[in-house]
């Protein structure tokens, strides 16, 4: 990987090494911001770059399920199976960003040891709807997104 004498590695160099970079503006993808707000000016943009490497391993299945159907599947995140899933999901305006902000805040509260008797917040998110509406995909993509954004805070997280 390039670095040191020539400066930090560029996104192009990292991509060829199997690493990926994502940029966002306060939880919103720059392409979305441009779509609704025109061209972004430098003082309107707070860049945040996340460098991560996607796991090539597939899902690990539980062997103890009934009738040969696994009771759960486990992935090492971030994984190639979920790459681009977040961007491919379309819901009512703001649902994905609100859910991401809520989950990020809940994780940060937990990490900081916030006393739930002093600061009350609902720790349950209920997703409901008929089969095939994207509930599982939303959960998978949210887990991937949180791993990429907050993985550097946790041992074995998604940032390298």
Automatic annotation (TrEMBL):
<dbReference type="GO" id="GO:0005694">
    <property type="term" value="C:chromosome"/>
</dbReference>
<dbReference type="GO" id="GO:0005524">
    <property type="term" value="F:ATP binding"/>
</dbReference>
<dbReference type="InterPro" id="IPR027417">
    <property type="entry name" value="P-loop_NTPase"/>
</dbReference>
<dbReference type="GO" id="GO:0005634">
    <property type="term" value="C:nucleus"/>
</dbReference>
<keyword id="KW-0547">Nucleotide-binding</keyword>
<dbReference type="InterPro" id="IPR044539">
    <property type="entry name" value="Pch2-like"/>
</dbReference>
<dbReference type="GO" id="GO:0051598">
    <property type="term" value="P:meiotic recombination checkpoint signaling"/>
</dbReference>
<dbReference type="Pfam" id="PF00004">
    <property type="entry name" value="AAA"/>
</dbReference>
<feature type="domain" description="ATPase AAA-type core">
    <location>
        <begin position="125"/>
        <end position="149"/>
    </location>
</feature>
<keyword id="KW-0067">ATP-binding</keyword>
<protein>
    <recommendedName>
        <fullName>ATPase AAA-type core domain-containing protein</fullName>
    </recommendedName>
</protein>
<dbReference type="GO" id="GO:0007131">
    <property type="term" value="P:reciprocal meiotic recombination"/>
</dbReference>
<dbReference type="InterPro" id="IPR003959">
    <property type="entry name" value="ATPase_AAA_core"/>
</dbReference>
<dbReference type="GO" id="GO:0016887">
    <property type="term" value="F:ATP hydrolysis activity"/>
</dbReference>
């Amino acid at each position: 990987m390039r670095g040191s004498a020539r400066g930090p590695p560029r996104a192009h160099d990292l991509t060829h090494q199997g690493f990926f970079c994502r940029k966002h503006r306060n939880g919103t993808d720059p392409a979305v911001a441009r779509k609704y707000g025109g061209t972004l000016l430098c003082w309107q943009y707070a860049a945040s770059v996340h460098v991560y490497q996607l796991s090539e391993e597939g899902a690990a299945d539980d062997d103890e399920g009934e009738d040969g159907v696994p009771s759960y599947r486990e992935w090492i995140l971030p994984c190639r199976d979920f790459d681009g899933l977040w961007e491919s999901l379309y819901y009512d305006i703001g649902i994905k960003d609100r859910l991401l902000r809520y989950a990020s805040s809940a994780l940060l509260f937990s990490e900081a040891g916030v006393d739930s008797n002093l600061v009350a917040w609902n720790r349950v998110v209920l997703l409901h709807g008929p089969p095939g509406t994207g509930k599982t995909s939303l959960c998978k993509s949210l887990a991937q997104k949180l791993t990429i954004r907050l993985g550097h805070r946790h041992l074995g997280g998604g940032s390298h």
